[in-house]
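Morning F.,

Quick status update on the modeling queue. The single chain you submitted on Monday has been processed. Sequence for confirmation:
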Amino acid sequence: MHSRRTFLRGLASTVALPALPSLARGATAATPPVIHPTRLAFIYIPNGVNVEAWRPQGTGTDWKLPPTLEPLAPVRHSVSVLRHLDHDKANANGDGGGDHARASASFLTGCQPRKTAGEDIRVGPSVDQIAAERIGHHTRVPSLELSTDPPRRSGPCDSGYSCAYQFNLSWINPTTPAPAMRDPRLVFEKMFGSGDAGEDSRRRAYRKSILDFVHTDAKRMQARLDSADRAKMDEYLHAVREAEQHIQQAEQFKAEVPENLRPQGIPTSYADHIKVMFDLMVLAFQTDTTRIATFMLAHDGSNRSFPEIGVPAGHHEISHHRDDPNLLAQIATIDRFHVTHFAGFLQRLTEIREGDLTLLDRSMIVYGGGIADANRHSHQDLPVLLAGGGNGTLKPGRIIEAPPGTPMTNLYLSLLDRMGTKVDRLGDSTGRLDVL
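Structure tokens below.
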């Protein structure tokens, strides 16, 4: 297999490039064609949804986007709505309260977390880390874990459950979470930094772009490309610089605010934070920096408010809506806000070509949460979308009806098969989801 990973190198940076066909054509006649890999991502939404505004009407390919999912219209043909997937291990099952912690902990593991606020945590491993263990050595970063919340690995959070359960989606093994990064700068450096902390720090101190350090190599590389690939490379480097500038601007603003008044997170706007994280995921997949990613838009139980979209109350607070129409309308507004950003992420993936397909065609993106109706803390018939074509192995653009009571882990087994990382069982799985 011809390596699709080409790098621009400099003193304080290593910038992976997307697939550039003209490089392969310039190789020897004996060089095999480029094989484009499949990517796998999981996007988590907290606190359940307004079920009525989420559920589409129709069957198969004959269905209508409901209000919450309307932002997906431009990419509808690449998105399926999955029905009747459950997470039984998010239920109490004799353990009492703690649905938010169990929802997060079981979402990618299908396991009942041990109820403890101490160090004897136990739940995983998670589907993403199972894949990363088997194919992560093919990429610079085995897997990418993202969040908008600070990492928590200890202490009590939800009804006797450790914060480790509530703030982590990914689990390397049953007792070890893979903490997510919330700072876009850390993500950017992990993807493009030189690996030398001192050099990277000096580059940032002098406010130098990472692209300044690979300029010579980039010019040399462009001379080897045809016009189509030069345009592709220019577009990609512009996207890298745009992401870097976004991070630099957020850091500069934060540095100018007194320590005691500094808002949490980089950038300060939640919408901007989500967007830059999605942009970094696109770059990571585009360059094959990683093939596996998770993104927790917020931890389950998050009480973040959304004044910028007319919802000043806390998300968790209003999720206990008691069928109040006003609260349900606010929940639907938050749900649509999240879907709008997800739709933008998918749209960006459709704009990137890899051979005869788009990057979205070569991906499998699960979007959803571990709670359906938060007022009832229900974990049945969860709100779940599956986007992408799985490198030709999925048939998107429809409503997929699983048998009622199907464990969500059955979906994961089927996705692992398509990643070439087949396992016999994951958590509470009972088989594979053959209707994909």
